[in-house]
Structures are given as C-alpha cells and as structure tokens.
Amino acid sequence: MMKHITIIGAGWLGLPLTHHLSDSCRVFASKTTPAGADALKLEGIRSFCFHFEQSESPLSDKLIAQQAEVVIGCFPPGFRQNKQDEYAHYWSCLVEQCKIAQVKKLIMISTTGVYPNHPGVMTEQDANLTLAQDNADFSTSARVLLTAEQHVIDSGLDYAILRFSGLIGPKRHPARFVPKLKQVSSRAPANILHLDDAIGSVRYILEQELSGIFNVTTPETVSKAEFYQAALDTVSSEAALPPIVAQEDKQISGDKLCRCGYSFHYQHTLDALRYL
C-alpha cells in the first residue's frame, strides 16, 4: 500500500477519509479557501488550499512537494450549482497535473448516476461514454460524469474509479431527504451506501492495489418506499411519504467489488440505517 496520499476535496466524504487514512499514511487534504485549510490544520491535518479556478501555483507543484504517490479526487460534480460543465474540465486538469507530478495512482470517486434511466441490474460495463453518446436513456448529467471518467481512463495512469450509490451517514440521514421527494416507488430498489463502506472501499482499493471501475453499493436492499419509511421510523418522524408509485428502476450491482474480496460493514441497507 502506497503511503503518501493527497485528497482533493476534504468535504463530507474527504474529511473523514483523511482522518481514517492518516492512521497509517501521510495524507494531505485540500480545501478551496485559506480559511478552510487553516481550520483543518487546527485539527492536526496536513492541509492546503487549492481551487481549480483560482490556484496561484500549479497543483503539480504541490503534489511534488507532498511526494504524492496516490491522488484521490472526491469533489462533487456540482449539478445543483449548475457547474456540471466544469466538472469534466476539472478532472481533465487533475489528470494532467497528476501526470506532471508523476503520481503513481489516481482514484476517482464517481457515482452510480452514470447509469441509464431504465430498469434492470447495472454492472460496471453498462455505462461508458461510447454507450451514452446519442442514447436518450442516459441523462445529460450521466454524460458529464462519463466524460469526466473518460479523462481518467485515457490518462495512462494507474487508476480506480469508484461509483458510489446514494450516500448516507452523519448529517446525511435519509429521513431529511423525504420532504424533497416528489414520489417514491414500491418497485424501485434503494441503492444506498453508508459512509463507513465508502471509506472502507477506498482503503481496500489502496491496500489490495486494485485498478479499474467498481460499483460500491450496499449488497442487499429494499424498495425505496420501504427504505424511506424505515428512515422516518428510525427518527420517530410523523412525516408522511410522498405519493407511492409502482415504477421500476435500476438496481446497482456491487458484485465485482465483493468478488475482489471486499466485505461490507453493512450487508443490508436497513442495517446501515440503524447505525446512523
């Protein structure tokens, strides 16, 4: 396992990942503002300020100074801020800076949002940029994500792309999402991932030196209607679910990662709920 790691994006996922890996590795983590970087330093984290649009010096200079062997990019695509066009560009920039710094491995935290909008079991081979071109089953957002992934695939670097399903954990309790749902299906699976397994899967990829594309999702699940009702029940909420429909949807398969030996902390999404 390579011991010098730089994490780009010390947010909801990147910060606890930094803490977790720091017990055995030399980890640097970035924030987009000086104040954010200073706050991390107060926590004892090797932090630095970096923003793709505002950096005073090339990222490659920082990576070289940090002796980065592995770079982990876990910054969000920014769809809610209408920054999706920038996301693929950021990954293109990150790839080039990693190549200049002669980084040994690049890990991309992606999302199962890359998959087409139709029912069925989705494995890693069911989404790529070629498939998505001129295919109405793939959303515009999916094509943006796949374009970003393609920059990593074509980089010539050793890489791993982890496609995370819907993340839950501290400050991301699924009961909070219910008021924003317009409808919920009794026939669509809840593709969910607990923060513990998000972190655990990254560590496993590092330890086993795995490469390629991997879905990361809790192996067993229930329908979205059952899951979100259970989420409300765990916080004793009296809120009602939105209208329940019987629309089928995709189910993400994490079998590839399991075949590689990863053992999930939570085998079932309802178990993951109980530990929030």
From TrEMBL:
It comes from the Bacteria. It holds the Pfam family NAD_binding_10. Residues 69-184 form the NAD(P)-binding domain. PANTHER family: PRESTALK A DIFFERENTIATION PROTEIN A, PTHR43162. This is Nucleoside-diphosphate-sugar epimerase.
